[in-house]
Amino acid sequence: xxxxxxxxxxxxxxxxxxxxxxxxxxxxxxxxxxxxxxxxxxxxxxxxxxxxxxxxxxxxxxxxxxxxxxxxxxxxxxxxxxxxxxxxxxxxxxxxxxxxxxxxxxxxxxxxxxxxxxxxxxxxxxxxxxxxxxxxxxxxxxxxxxxxxxxxxxxxxxxxxxxxxxxxxxxxxxxxxxxxxxxxxxxxxxxxxxxxxxxxxxxxxxxxxxxxxxxxxxxxxxxxxxxxxxxxxxxxxxxxxxxxxxxxxx
Amino acid sequence: xxxxxxxxxxxxxxxxxxxxxxxxxxxxxxxxxxxxxxxxxxxxxxxxxxxxxxxxxxxxxxxxxxxxxxxxxxxxxxxxxxxxxxxxxxxxxxxxxxxxxxxxxxxxxxxxxxxxxxxxxxxxxxxxxxxxxxxxxxxxxxxxxxxxxxxxxxxxxxxxxxxxxxxxxxxxxxxxxxxxxxxxxxxxxxxxxxxxxxxxxxxxxxxxxxxxxxxxxxxxxxxxxxxxxxxxxxxxxxxxxxxxxxxxxxxxxxxxxxxxxxxxxxxxxxxxxxxxxxxxxxxxxxxxxxxxxxxxxxxxxxxxxxxxxxxxxxxxxxxxxxxxxxxxxxxxxxxxxxxxxxxxxxxxxxxxxxxxxxxxxxxxxxxxxxxxxxxxxxxxxxxxxxxxxxxxxxxxxxxxxxxxxxxxxxxxxxxxxxxxxxxxxxxxxxxxxxxxxxxxxxxxxxxxxxxxxxxxxxxxxx
Lengths: 250, 462
Fold this sequence. Notes:
The complex is a heterodimer. By secondary structure, chain A is α/β, with parallel strands linked by helices.
């Protein structure tokens, strides 16, 4: 009985898979290399051939610095060229290079209008042979995200939409449904305390807000290192001292 | 006297004077015989040069000018304004002075280019009337006889003439006057008969019945590309710039120019570049002739693709760069520059250039976002080398919890003499909420010569 049921189920699954994507895809995942995160994500990592969204939290919704570095860290761990589509050219490449993204690999495409960014992203995702396609966009309507997702599925390129708004109040747009496979929010946390004055390794609160066929989760991670990897410290994090005095004035 | 230089103008000479009068005005005047044929030949040469660089449709305008239709081609130069300044600068670098104007119609651009005292002017869309109404009648490209007669009647400017009832004028001066005015305001078409280079590869298709539908245009463009690629193959060339020239039933032409980042001879690649932009073609009453011209071509030999068994290689993404670039996006890569000043340490390079080996070698952390212009922040800081205790930026006051620095950056006196003593001290600061910023103090904190000792925010860390 149960064997026959298994057989019927697997047969159905195959037929559904055939309906969903007719073409052969380069399937697979890009693991983060951090066990806790990879265990939560279906497939054990960030899916190739899919659109992923990330945004900053707090004032990061406007500057999008942490979200951009998070995306750069993912792109750094892929193979091949990276196309970065944007409208506001304020990225500082030396900063991204410190996350392991070599300047030779990144091709920027700067547009005047939002819609052109989406069009460039779709074109690049559909081109194939790229490592990742990153776009900095304000609005991501359902239709556009669906198009991006389909273009990514066709070629197996990772698409990352870095959401970045003009005002912090506009950021509630991030709750709107889109076709992206995962949705992340990266907020900055106080850095690792050091025994001496100075700024330690940056820390992020990484929220997996949506994951198709998976669960949501939150992680406190150390920001990208020089190869684009995150890490979760094993020791319990010391909360900052609340003496209220600047470390430097001590 | 047919032309004068700046020194002669200062002495009071004007074009159109009698030579004897000019010599009377200024003793020892040096005069060179005008060589009209050589002038015309030189103008033709400049036209051919402009054809290869700026626009697919270039023609000689009168005896002293060029006219170009740059619609659909200015994006290759970065837009209208960079294109105009580029034209003016190129002429200046060869010792010639040029006046460049861009307007909706040939007539308006002709008049504006000859009237302005600046080097360049852009007449915005639909603003022709405002731009030309005060200009003198002589810029209307009319025979001198008509212009003189109009002056006798008391007309001074183009605007006055355009506002006068047409019938009496036509009765007296013939249809030429009305035609020129209509051409200037774009009410009548004025096709440009372009000059063509001698060694260009051109493929053409005539249509017995005019075509207009987008699918049909696409189909024939694809066939033309196949023809062109066949011809290129035979000659061992690849194209860098290709023009699609659309000739319509009413005698007007439209051109679409596509540039590639390196020599191309690939049917799919070129077809894609034009198909992307067929929507820009306005068929009007129908298209009777399509031609595809390879304006700039370079030698392109056959090359062997490395086998996937031997080595793993990056896919060539030049076609993608071209697609993005021809849609009007600015496509570039970023390369390091040996400079300690952060905003000078990066430069944009063409996306298809060979990979550079070097990268930035900073011991210090660099921010992800760099503000285009550093913002002044209010701070409280101990001089000379402590980070701020707090700072306020965009109306929000932040207490600094920890900081790194200073990282001292010296001005580059070899770039700008005013930077001989300039110093910036950079600090990485983190506020209570964990947000990290890149602040700097202009000046070393002791010597007032090194900077204003004001604080600025220059970047945002992740």
